[in-house]
Amino acid sequence: MKFGQSENPEFIDFRLPADDQQTTEILKQNDTTKPLSIYVGCAKWNKTDLKNFYPRGTKDELTYYSRQFNSIELNATFYSMPGRDQVITWKDKAPDNFRFFPKITQSISHMRRLNDVQALTTEYCDNISNFEEKLGMVFLQLHDNFKYKNYDRLVSFIENFPRAIPLAVELRNTEWFNDKAVSEEVYSLFEKHQVTNIVVDTAGRRDLLHVRLTTPKVFVRYVGANNPQSDRERLDDWANRLKIWVDQGIRDIYFFVHQNIELESPFLSAYFIEKLNKQFGTNLQIPKLISPKEDTAPTLGF
User: Fold this and answer.
1) Rounded-to-integer distance, Cα 213 and Cα 215, Å
2) Which helix (H) or strand (E) holds 269?
3) Of 5, 59, 219, 229, which shows the fewest CB atoms inside 10 Å?
4) Which residues pair with 224 in a beta bridge?
């Protein structure tokens, strides 16, 4: 993930913004008797990107990955329309507690830019629905030049999107955030239709970082800077912010860890999972990490 890459992360202010008051109000809507549900994963499962994660001799990467993590931010569905049979194959390889969070195909978001996409959206949703109970949430990532002038397209897409499939949206242009009237308009749209406003935390684009929730769920796409100290400190801050939100009522946390050099993502994810287990008393599985020269899992040492 090159979006927001920075060559000098040591000079960046990584502090999280203060919560918006409306976030607190949104979280009050939740049923606090519901058990806490946390999903943490990477963006890919292929061996090339996650080198040194798979033990020698691993024959099926998804089968192994899905028994180390409980979720995947599925970027493969962005590059081509996923077929029904492919979705079923992926679903059948994963255990019952695993969840897929597929990205909406670029033909909808980037090529047609939400213009005249109803047939494509129907095809995508029909196929994605074959994940059945293993579908977490789909997400729409819009191009960074998709601006407020295209707001009517966003409204139409959301209003016509099937209610049976949970939807999150990632906006990447500062127009959506810098103009209060514009941001409140889009936040109201999301709240009305129960669309989750994705939080993107990446080093080189602090101008897009927000912590404004529009549903009582949080979907975070975190991008490390391949700097061990700052990456872990940032995740510590996220663990603390999530603790505040859990105390306020949030029960569904979806957190996906990227790195510009993706092979480090499982190691950073393992650190964060261990941190959350200590923070919340949960028992999320900590992935086994294979050292580069052997097929044994070393002590985490975090």
Assistant:
1) 6
2) helix 265-280
3) 59
4) 259
Q: Are 257 and 275 in contact (CB under 8 A)?
A: no
Distance in angstroms (rounded) separating the CA atoms of residues 44 and 42: 6
CA separation for the pair 135, 137 (Å, rounded): 6
Helix axis angle, 265-280 relative to 228-248, nearest 10°?
40
125 backbone φψ class: left, alpha, beta (φ>0; ψ -120 to 50):
alpha
Separation between Cα atoms, residue 64 and residue 58, nearest integer Å:
7
Calpha distance 179→177 (Å, rounded): 6
d(CA 137, CA 128): 10
Q: Is 140 helix (H, G, I), strand (E, B) or coil?
A: strand
Residue 130 to residues 61, 62, 88, 120, Cα–Cα distance (Å): 21, 17, 6, 16
Q: Return the pLDDT at 4.
A: 58
Give 14-23 pLDDT, tens digit per residue.
999 999 999 9
With beta carbons less than 8 A apart as the criterion, state whether 170 and 205 touch.
no
Per residue in 178-227, pLDDT tens? Answer: 999 999 999 999 999 999 999 999 988 999 999 999 999 999 999 988 88
Coil, strand or helix at 36:
coil
Q: Give the CATH number of domain 16-280; options: 3.40.190.10, 3.30.300.30, 3.20.20.410, 3.40.250.10.
A: 3.20.20.410
Residue 61, Cβ neighbours under 10 Å: how many? 17
Q: Which of 167, 136, 134, 129 is nearest to 38 (CA)?
A: 136
The values of phi and psi at residue 167, to 5°, are -125, 135
Do residues 139 and 161 make contact, with C-beta atoms less than 8 angstroms apart? Answer: no
Domain range summary for the chain, segments of one domain joined by +: 16-280
Give the whole-angstrom CA distance, residue 191 versus residue 193. 5
Where do the DSSP E strands lie in the chain?
37-41, 71-74, 99-102, 138-141, 167-170, 196-197, 199-202, 217-224, 252-259
Amino acid at 79: Y
Cα–Cα dist 126/212, whole Å: 30
